[in-house]
Write a structure and sequence with these properties.
41% of the residues are buried. Helix content is 88%, strand content 0%. It has 262 residues and is an all-alpha fold.
């Protein structure tokens, strides 16, 4: 009997996972097919861009600055052992543009904007606003989901770029202003090492993919949340956890393909 119960539990979880994957795929398909209204009434997307992108600027900028400062301090101590202090600009820029900028910005975006999307849509469902739209023949996918979807996708690459720029500035402040690395060497090494196609564009591609993943997870969890306080709370928690794991997994896959292509 215990074995039978365990098998039933495993089977139930497997069926539930498959069902949720299918539901999420259909949800994404409906979001894409109902996106026309978002572009015809672009002010809806602009409103959500402010909520998800502009309101995340402070945490993204401050975090990028601090990460750049730490990279400058750690990188200088490491490069000093080999007499390569002039390569500090290259180290900071490549670390941020290739990896830390897109990944950390996406994690912060998931924690701040993704959780807010899930909670907002979950509360709309709990207070029957979604049901009221359907009763008035207004598609909640077109009116609520699609603008947030495109706002998240547009916000993520821009936030990652701001994170990387603030990180480079933090590395400059530590390396050049405080420690005394030659300013010309700092910038010239960075310009000579960072490649637009293989470094910057790959970072933009990563941030775009992360934005799609985080936004889809956040919107799906909010739309699928049980209409209770506990259900909305659990959906918000799942958004942060699943988005973080998805970001790290996608980062491994994308990095493997990018290095193989190089």
């Amino acid at each position: 009997m215990p074995i039978a119960k365990s098998l039933r539990a495993v089977g139930h979880r497997a069926v539930n996972v498959v069902w949720r994957i299918g539901f999420a795929t259909r949800f994404l398909y409906l979001t894409l097919t109902h996106s026309g209204m978002s572009f015809r009434r672009f002010q809806l997307v602009v409103k959500e861009l402010f909520a998800s992108g502009v309101m995340s600027l402070i945490i993204i900028g401050v975090a990028g600055l601090f990460v750049g400062i730490v990279l400058g301090l750690q990188g200088y101590e490491t490069l000093k052992r080999y007499g390569s202090e002039s390569a500090l600009g290259s180290l900071v820029a490549l670390s941020l543009v290739r990896e830390l900028g897109p990944v950390l910005a996406a994690l912060l975006f998931a924690s701040r904007a993704g959780s807010a999307m899930t909670a907002e849509i979950g509360l709309m469902k709990a207070t029957e606003q979604i049901a009221a739209m359907e009763m008035m023949a207004v598609s909640p996918i077109a009116r609520v989901i699609a603008p947030r979807f495109w706002a998240g996708i547009l916000s993520m690459p821009l936030l990652a770029a701001i994170f990387s720029a603030m990180g480079v500035f933090g590395g400059y402040v530590v390396g050049v202003v405080l420690i005394g690395v030659d300013e010309g060497s700092f910038w010239s090494q960075m310009q000579a090492t960072v490649d637009f196609q293989h470094d910057i564009l790959n970072g933009v591609l990563k941030s775009f993919v992360f934005g799609v993943a985080v936004t889809v997870i956040a919107l799906f969890e909010g739309f699928d949340a049980p209409p209770t306080a506990e259900g909305v709370s659990g959906a918000t928690t799942r958004t942060v956890v699943q988005s973080s794991l998805a970001i790290l997994l996608l980062d491994v896959i994308l990095t493997a393909f990018m290095f193989r292509g190089a």
